[in-house]
Every structure is written in C-alpha cells, then in structure tokens.
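Structure first, sequence second, as always.
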C-alpha cells in the first residue's frame, strides 16, 4: 500500500484515493471547463453550481431541513470559537455554557471567555480528560444563550455518543473531527460546525450549519465578515472563498453519497475499523494504555501510549518503515494517536494492527 493510504494523521488527514485522482485531474484542467480548478473564478456559474451541490449533498447525507442555513467559511474552527460568542451570547439571555472536555474544547472555552461572560458547565481536567459528562445531566441555566461542546476530542480520543434529545437551551457542537463519520439528528442542534481537514477535504474551509431562527439573535454592529448573516445572505460568496477546498469537499460529499452509500454505511465501516484497533490495543494491555476511559473511546482518534515510553518513538519509526505515517500523538499529551477518519480503509487498519502486534511481540 502507498503512504497516502496508510496516513493515520490527526489532520489534515487521509483523503479517498478516488477523490485524490479526480483532484489531480482538476488541477490540470477540469473536465467541465477545460481550465484548472486553481484558476476558476469564484463568481463563475461553475463555482455556484459546486457550492449548491455541496450544500445539497450535505442536506441529503444528514437530512438537514431548510430550517437551517449551511455556510462555507474560512478561518477554521478557531475562528468559529470567536464568532459563536460574538454572534450568539445575546443580550437578554444568561451567559453561554461551555463543556471543557479536552484540548480543543479548552481552546473554545478560553476564546469565549475573551469575548463574553460565560460559564464552564463541566471540566474534565481533574480526571486528565479521560471521561465525558452526560450532556442532559449538566447543571446549566435554562436561560443560557447556548451550550457549547466538542463532539469528538481529537487530541485525547474521546467521543460523545450521538445526542438524541435536544437540551432546553440551543446546543452548539464543534464536530470538526467526527462530522460525516456517522448519522445524527441535526434538529437536536442549533448550530454544528466542522473544519474540512478531517473528514471533508483539505484545510481552508469550515462548514457551519445554523438554525435560521438563531440568526435573529445576532447583534448589529459586528464586523461584516464576522457576522454569520453575511455568509448566509451572500451564499458563502461574500468575499473570495477557498474555491479549491470547496471543490474537493464537494467531491468528498459525492463519494460519501454515491460510492460509500451514505452515512449509515460509513458508520458501519468506521465501527469495524475502531473495533479492530481497540481490540488489538486491549490484547496488548500489559504494554499499552489507551488514554480514554473505555466508555468514551473515540471511533475517529485512538490516543495511546506504550508503558515503556521509549517504545512510542520506536514504534513510530518501525511503522514508518512500512509506509505507515501520522502516528505521532498531539504535542500536548505526547504518545501515539491513530486517526481513523472516513478515508482510512479497513485494509489500512489491518496493516496498522498487524504492525502493532508484530512490534509488541518483538519488544515483549
Ligand atoms: N476543533 C477540533 C475538534 C479540532 O480537532 C481542531 C483542530 N484539529 C480545531 C477545533 C481547530 O481547528 P482549526 O485549526 O481549523 O482552527
């Protein structure tokens, strides 16, 4: 297998081989227009059709109704961390509530605190960010502007179960690292956002799905580009959008709809992949520890460590010799992390688990 297929990076991550192939062609010349996707005008009919298709595919994949606007923005999820409190910590509501369950929700919480009065509804610091709370049992104000959480903690490898019940306050989720990995009910949420560089494509574009009624809370006077209404009103084409990233995102949504066969099919594949990796790590539990408590283990990011920390780097090196890349743990917690995003195949996972077993036998 080629290294592209054995890319377990936390993000930007692996992309499906068929999408990479179409992207290669599009960089030379798009079959539809005869010119490179890198030189296509954002005001062209071609690009309008791409934006429309991306939106339609997302609506079809997730069953998103017209009660929600879908926008494609720049600035990554970090810009959303700032824009959400600027737009939605509205007057007349109690301060927004934040769940701090790991590195990225910690960043979201800290950013919100710079913008507005806010409350930390739950903080997993004391338990080393190995557990998650039950969202419906949090002690939060019923008049809070919103409740924010990160559905999958990319660094620690923790994932909330799908949220079935809408809480009494608007629920906002950063789904950057598990969006489109499985189905969920969009109407539980007031806003969902996800940057592209895990399951959606290359870095440079962030999808935000926003309940239209929430837009009415936005105060006037925000800088134009930081007001969500700008992106909704201008159909994600207020200023020059990242045409290339949105094109690849559209290819990914096509792949999910028409090659994979939808999010239920994707979910089944992702479950099998994660099971295989965790089963392997559990079988090696004398030598290896998974960071997350079992109940909260993520299907997208598996963070683990060898008991002998020298073996972490040794395994990364041994895996690289077999073409397996991207296994370094995040700089904040070290160790290893295998990211199993949608484009990582079951064969790639087999290659990884075989390498793990072999390495552990050699170093037992
Ligand atoms: N949220 C999550 C869950 C993430 O994993 C990341 C980055 N990996 C971010 C937010 C920050 O995203 P960005 O780099 O696009 O600002």
């Amino acid at each position: 297998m080629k290294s592209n297929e054995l890319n377990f990076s936390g993000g930007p991550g692996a992309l499906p081989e068929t999408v990479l192939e179409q992207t290669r062609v599009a960089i030379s010349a798009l079959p539809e227009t005869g010119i490179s996707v890198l030189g296509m005008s954002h005001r062209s009919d071609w690009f309008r059709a791409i934006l429309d298709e991306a939106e339609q595919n997302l609506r079809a994949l997730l069953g998103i109704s017209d009660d929600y606007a879908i926008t494609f923005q720049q600035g990554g999820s970090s810009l959303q961390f700032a824009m959400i409190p600027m737009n939605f910590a509205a007057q007349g509501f109690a301060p927004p509530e934040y769940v701090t369950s790991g590195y990225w929700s910690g960043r979201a919480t800290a950013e919100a605190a710079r913008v507005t009065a806010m409350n930390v509804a739950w903080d997993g610091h004391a338990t080393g960010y190995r557990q998650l709370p039950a969202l419906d049992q949090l002690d939060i104000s019923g008049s809070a502007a919103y409740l924010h959480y990160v559905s999958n903690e990319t660094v620690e490898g923790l994932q909330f179960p799908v949220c079935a019940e809408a809480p009494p306050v608007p629920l906002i989720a950063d789904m950057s690292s598990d969006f489109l990995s499985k189905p969920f009910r969009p109407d539980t949420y007031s806003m969902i956002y996800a940057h592209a560089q895990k399951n959606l494509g290359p870095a440079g574009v962030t999808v935000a799905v926003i309940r239209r009624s929430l837009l009415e809370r936005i105060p006037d006077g925000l800088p134009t580009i930081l007001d969500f209404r700008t992106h909704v009103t201008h159909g994600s084409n207020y200023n020059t959008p990242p045409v290339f990233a949105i094109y690849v995102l559209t290819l990914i949504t096509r792949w999910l709809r028409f090659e994979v066969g939808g999010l239920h099919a994707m979910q089944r594949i992702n479950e099998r992949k994660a099971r295989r990796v965790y089963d392997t790590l559990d079988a090696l539990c004398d030598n290896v520890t998974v960071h997350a408590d079992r109940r909260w283990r993520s299907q997208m990011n598996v963070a683990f460590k060898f008991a002998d920390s020298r073996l972490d780097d040794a395994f990364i090196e041994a895996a690289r010799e077999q073409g397996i890349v991207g296994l370094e743990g995040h700089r904040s917690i070290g160790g290893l992390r295998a990211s199993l995003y949608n484009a990582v195949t079951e064969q790639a996972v087999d290659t990884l688990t075989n390498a793990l077993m072999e390495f552990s036998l050699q170093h037992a």
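Margin note: The radius of gyration is 21 Å.
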